[in-house]
Structures are given as structure tokens and as C-alpha cells.
Amino acid sequence: MTLPARRQRVGALAEPGGTAWTRNPLAEFDDLFNRMGRLLESTVGPGATPAEMPWIPQADISETDDAYVIELDLPGARSEDIDVEINDRELAISGEIKEREREGVMRHRTRRTGRFEFRVVLPGDVRAEDVTAALSDGVLSLTVPKAQPAKARHVEIKKGD
Predict the structure, then answer these.
(1) What is the pTM of this model?
(2) What does each C-alpha distance from 160 to 63, 157 come to in angstroms?
(3) In the chain, where are the structural domains located?
(4) 40 Ramachandran zone, left/alpha/beta (phi>0; psi -120 to 50)
(5) Distance CA 60, CA 140 (A)
(6) CA 13, 15, 17, 20 torsion: positive or negative?
């Protein structure tokens, strides 16, 4: 059985002595890591780390006959640290949950802090001027009323003079 020959890439490192390896087995991982870093920088800008990127809160979206209801889990958030914007059918909720000061040494952490962002495009037209929001017990609840569709009406034809 014949195995395909592997060619050494230009610039790949050979093991000292040149006996067992013709190239560094970790070079492919280094190359992949570098390409992923360039992709991340092109997406979020240079110097941004995953810790600085906003996280997405858990949310439920339901629909009633006359509105869309969105509920986001934001434990520890204050209403003055949350921004809600609606543009056409796109709803954007962003803000920051600030870390509180603690005494002693943190031994375990799973609660999210820092910047968050939630975006959704609602399936139908809405009345942006009538959106309501309330923050209670760490849950942000928004009610986005649906736009009333134009109703068909009968147009009467007048007789000409």
C-alpha cells in the first residue's frame, strides 16, 4: 500500500537533526491560530479580545394578537444602564451590568457582567412610538405593539355631472 507523500511547506520548521520530523507538527496550529486572529480583528477591530466583546442575554420572545413580548434575563442590571432602541422592525437592547465590589477572594464565578447586546428583527410591522419596557426582579420585559394592517374598505363611485 502506498501512502501519499507530504511535501514540506516553504518556511516550515524542520526538527533538529532532521531524522524523525520533516516539519514542526504544531506549525499548522500556529497558522490556524494566526488566521483566526486576523479574522477576529477584521470583524471587531484590532486589539479587541473576547472578554471585551458584548455577551447576549437569554431571552424569550412571544407573540400575542396585538403585540410582541420580549423578556430578557438581566440579573443585577439597573434601568439607567440599559438602552432600548427600535428602528423599523429591528429591536436593539444594550447596556452594561457592572461588577459590584466584593471583599475577599473570588473562588467561583458564573454570573455574567460587562457589556451586553441583544438584537432581533421582529416578523411584522410595529408601532415604535408605543413600545413599553419595565425592569423587575432582573427581567426586562418589553411590549412592542403590532401595526394595524390597512383594512379593506368599499369606495363608492360618484356619478359625474
Answers:
(1) 0.61
(2) 48, 9
(3) 11-53, 59-145
(4) alpha
(5) 11
(6) negative
